[in-house]
Design brief:
- There is one protein chain.
- The chain is of the alpha+beta class and about 725 residues long.
- Helices cover about 50% and strands about 15% of the residues.
- Helix 3 crosses helix 4 and helix 4 runs antiparallel to helix 6.
- The N terminus is likely disordered.
- Bound molecules: adenosine-5'-triphosphate, potassium ion (K) and magnesium ion.
Length: about 725
């Protein structure tokens, strides 16, 4: 396994891309305009319902037992209670000079501050709940035909099925649980899960045998071995994921929360200590004013929006038809340094088709065709089938009986060969050229002199050469053609701008790999890579302190998917792969990892940007509130009123009102995420500090001044 850097300039023959359908997700990209008017209508109705529900929830969440989970907002709620009491008993904590209307106003603003924060969280949770409800509907009362030991079937409720049970599912029936097809083949409608109405083929053996409970068989019949116990199915997991029932704060979120809570504690100590100093200096501070000061100082903006940002980030991934098993996985995606991609099917279309047969040495075309046919008659891979198709096209008469009684050698990524052992003892193989060469050499065979040159010609064009051999003789080559998906170069350019390295791992030979790597523009590639080599690549990168993402679908990808910091499994893949990964792409589009990374980055950036904004906001609030506080006690110190606010009372209320309304104003940003352009993290940091740091300082000056002008009209 070598590590080849891709050279910049290349002399690659590019294949024209002819009308091949991309297998990218059929859903619109997040944020892209929705062309369907009717769906927009529905969406509006749903949004209205979501908002009503969220308003209701905001009040439910006022329960102090729930509020404690958010210490910052809990402090605000506590402030609300105190000022509320003071509204009716102004002298409860000693004589007070402020009027009751001021206390009532402060307590109302504080109440709204908490409600706004609750609303943000409830709104973010709402979308997932709506989706969970529709998923739950597809779960109800499925009946299953369970196979009994005596060979008969009995009709049981799907809820009674356990791991290892075997069920028969026929045309028109729902698959009662997650499982693996152990016999038969069927087309399955998975739209309940994937939203994609085109049926998919599920068959026993191989990488397409996993089925999901709640999906529907639309033709034929399959025998399924159940792989999950009640309550632990994919659909169950999906429901609790989108519902947020299992939502746990991520390490990043916990860390930020700790910082914000500590900050709150420090401000509390400062504010509580203040009266002692001022008493000593001979003047008195009012309790509601101190509470107002405290609430303005503590980071309520980010405290109110933090969980909404996290939930919305997860939700964006879900809207994109990717199931993330945890918020941690989404965040990790945002910090990824290296992405491991495979070539076939990810960077190229993957419909590698035989396009030519090339003889080597003295072999005749017919001889090569004969052995090629034998090597592929029982090879059910797309490559194998395309070989037979090409032979048919070329008019070669295939004698199917020649392999009767033979022993099929299935293609394996480990051996990189497939073929048949004939009853007469002869062994027929086709496969990666180096693998076949080694195999032939190990039997004392000779390598034709023109083999390497002919192999190179194919590889230089980006094709995959397969050698065909019988026992100790090589007969020639099969030329498999594949095409790089359009737009790959732009995608890799974007990733490079984000500072992310792409590594293509392929089982193909170094020359083909180099050609495709250059054409697609990946940073590095590893050729002749066996599945277990991928783990080594991941570990190597991780040992250098990098976070690594990879995609995969096969059982042999499972260990690497588990090792990667972000493992994205294809829904079409095996159960093992899906269980090992921390994300599943329901559209089974491996290039989606790139979008997942963008969403993760956006989540981290949004959190950072709003934290910066929230803390920068404080500057303006100091200038409004602190002078006002002293002015209340010592009216002669008018020079303190730098913002030229109308009155001390109005200054305090303006700062508090700004502090409250900024939360709902920022909800759209928290939900949608800050706009994200691919660039280096340094450039990003600078950009965000300018926008959200500087903006965070300036905006409240303007906002508070405007609110003050409005208030001065009333008092
Ligand atoms: N049906 C087949 N019979 C024999 N050899 C095959 C067959 N399919 C592929 N090969 C050979 O085995 C190699 C490895 O195949 P494998 O599918 O593991 O990786 P790959 O598709 O080339 O790379 P990637 O990891 O990018 O998908 C191929 O490059 C090819 O040379
Ligand atoms: K605040
Ligand atoms: Mg492959």
């Amino acid at each position: 396994m070598g590590n080849y850097a891709v050279k910049e300039k290349s002399t690659v023959t590019k294949f024209p891309v002819q009308g091949i359908e991309s297998n990218s997700g059929k859903r619109p990209n997040p944020g892209s305009p929705n062309p369907e008017y009717k769906r927009d209508e529905n969406k509006k109705a749903m949004d209205k319902e979501l908002i009503m529900q969220a308003i209701k929830e905001s009040f439910v969440k006022l329960d102090p037992r729930k509020m404690v989970k958010n210490p910052i907002m809990f402090v605000v709620e506590f402030g609300f209670f105190i000022t509320l009491i003071l509204s009716f008993a102004p002298d409860l904590f000693g004589s007070s000079a402020v009027e009751p209307w001021f206390n009532i106003t402060v307590s109302l603003i504080l109440l709204f501050t908490v409600l706004f924060a609750n609303f943000a969280e409830a709104l973010a949770e709402g979308r997932g709940k709506a989706q969970a409800d529709s998923l739950k509907k597809s779960k109800q009362d499925i009946m299953a035909n369970k196979l009994k030991p005596n060979g008969k079937t009995e009709n049981v409720a799907s809820l009674t099925l356990r791991k290892g049970d075997i069920v028969i599912v026929s045309q028109g029936e729902m698959i009662p649980g997650d499982g693996e097809v152990i016999a038969g083949l069927a087309s399955v409608d998975e739209s309940t899960i994937t939203g994609e109405s085109a049926p998919v083929i599920k068959e026993a053996g191989g990488d397409f045998n996993s089925v999901t409970g709640g999906t529907k068989v639309i033709s034929d019949q399959i025998k399924v071995r159940i792989t999950s116990d009640p309550g632990e199915s994919f659909l169950d997991r999906m429901i609790s994921l989108v519902e947020g029932a299992e939502r746990q704060k991520t390490p990043n979120e916990i860390a930020l929360n700790t910082v914000l809570t500590s900050l709150t504690l420090i401000f509390m100590i400062v504010v509580v200590a203040m009266p002692f100093f001022t008493n000593y200096l001979g003047f008195q501070l009012e309790i509601p004013v101190l509470i107002a000061l405290l609430v303005c100082l503590i980071p309520t903006t980010i405290g109110g929006l933090l969980s909404a940002i996290g939930i919305a980030g997860m939700d964006r991934v879900t809207q994109f038809n990717v199931l993330a098993m945890s918020g941690k996985a989404v965040e990790a995606a945002g910090d990824i340094n290296t992405i491991i991609l495979d070539k076939t099917g990810t960077i190229t279309f993957g419909n590698r088709m035989a396009s030519d047969f090339i003889t080597t040495g003295e072999v005749t075309k017919d001889k090569l065709s004969h052995w090629t046919a034998l090597s592929s008659l029982q090879d059910e891979t797309p490559e194998g089938r395309s070989v037979i198709e090409l032979l048919n096209q070329k008019g070669f008469r295939i004698d199917k009986s020649a392999v009767n009684g033979g022993n099929i050698i299935e293609f394996k990524a480990e051996t990189r060969m497939s073929g048949v052992d004939l009853p007469d003892g002869r062994k027929v193989r086709k496969g990666a050229v180096d693998a076949v060469k080694n195999w032939v050499k190990s039997q004392g065979g000779r390598i034709p002199e023109d083999l390497d040159q002919k192999t190179e010609e194919i590889a230089r064009e980006g094709g995959t050469p397969l050698a065909v051999a019988v026992d100790n003789q090589i007969y020639g080559l099969i030329y498999l053609k594949d095409t790089v998906k359009p737009g790959m170069r732009e995608r890799f350019d974007q990733l490079r701008k984000m500072g992310i390295k792409t590594v293509m791992c392929t089982g193909d030979n170094p020359l083909t790999a180099a050609t495709i790597a250059k054409e697609a523009g990946v940073d590095e590639f590893i050729a002749e890579c066996k599945p277990e080599d991928k783990i080594d690549v991941i570990k190597y990168e991780q040992n250098q302190g990098k976070l690594v993402a990879m995609t995969g679908d096969g059982t042999n990808d499972a260990p690497a998917l588990a090792q990667a910091d972000v493992g994205l499994a294809m829904n079409s893949g095996t159960t093992a792969a899906k269980e090992a990964a921390n994300m599943v792409d329901l559209d089974s589009n491996p290039t989606k990892i790139i979008e997942v990374v963008s969403i993760g980055k956006q989540l981290l950036m949004t959190r950072g940007a709003l934290t910066t904004f929230s803390i920068a906001n404080d500057v303006a609030k100091y200038f409004a509130i602190i002078p006002a506080m002293f002015l209340l006690a010592i009216p002669e110190m008018d020079a303190l009123n730098v913002m030229r606010l109308d009155s001390p009372m109005s200054a305090i209320l303006s700062a508090l009102i700004f502090n409250a309304v900024i939360i709902p104003l920022l909800i759209p940003l928290a939900m949608k995420g800050v706009s994200y352009k691919p660039m280096s993290s340094n450039a990003l940091l600078k950009r965000n500090l300018t926008i959200y740091g500087l903006g965070g300082v300036l905006v409240p000056f303007i906002g508070i001044k405007l609110i003050d002008i409005a208030i001065s009209l009333f008092i």
